[in-house]
Amino acid sequence: MFYTPISSRTSPPYATLGIIAINVIIFFIQSSSPVYYNYFLLNFGLIPYEIVSGVNLQTLITSMFLHGSFIHIFFNMYILLIFGPAVERKYGTALFIIFYIFCGVAAGLIHSYITFIFMPAEAYTITIGASGAIFGVMAAYAVNYPNQYLLLFFFTPVKAYIAITLFFVLETVMGLAGLFGAASSIAHFAHVGGFIAGVLFALLYLRFKGRGPKIKKERDIEVIYL
Q1: Confidence (pTM)
Q2: Is 48 strand, coil or helix?
């Protein structure tokens, strides 16, 4: 992926950069030794059975800042860096932080309940990662900037709302496949939950706050390669 910011005339995306920094710092501490890795996983990871039981609800938030591998955190933070600044500019720094946590918590709740009800054998499996919140950011981007183009696979321009909706559909299909026994180590319904939360938040914001300043197509250009 490659990203060119919409405009260079805006303030830095402090919340986006701060969230990325926190994730990276925690990852390096977490991965510095097996002891630390297990400590963070066992104490701050999300376990669906506990969430459904009303126990350790704080892990709905803490699990958002843990990652299992370098590839895991790299792609999550890269995608957040692509879509986060535009969404943060739309909502402002403080509201963006609330929005991000809201999407992550919603993702954790939906993942927990679907796992507990439909895949009880996996209800004790620890879940970590920021993907649910990041899917929420992607969803908000699609709602707020639907006609910006994403270049899929470096050559096919597709409007944002179409491209991101395709990712949502793919995650939904893969999640449903998991319900029917397809093996996967990815919490697809967490992605679905984060996306739904992002859409709802974005639509409510537009409903009560208005659309705000629009992108000027003549001077503000954005290109994203996926």
Answers
A1: 0.86
A2: helix
- For 5, phi then psi, to 5°, come to -55, 150
* Residue 221, domain extent: 3-225
The number of folded domains in the chain is 1
Residues 105 and 60 sit within 8 Å (Cβ to Cβ): yes
pLDDT tens by residue, 46-73: 999 999 999 999 999 999 999 999 999 9
Segments in 31-119 forming alpha helices (H):
34-44, 48-52, 59-62, 70-91, 93-118
Output the domain CATH number for residue 209.
1.20.1540.10
Residue burial 186-201, b: 16+ Cβ < 10 Å; e: rest: ebbbbbbbbbbbbbbb
Residue with tokens 């998991």: 178
Structure tokens at 80: 């957040």
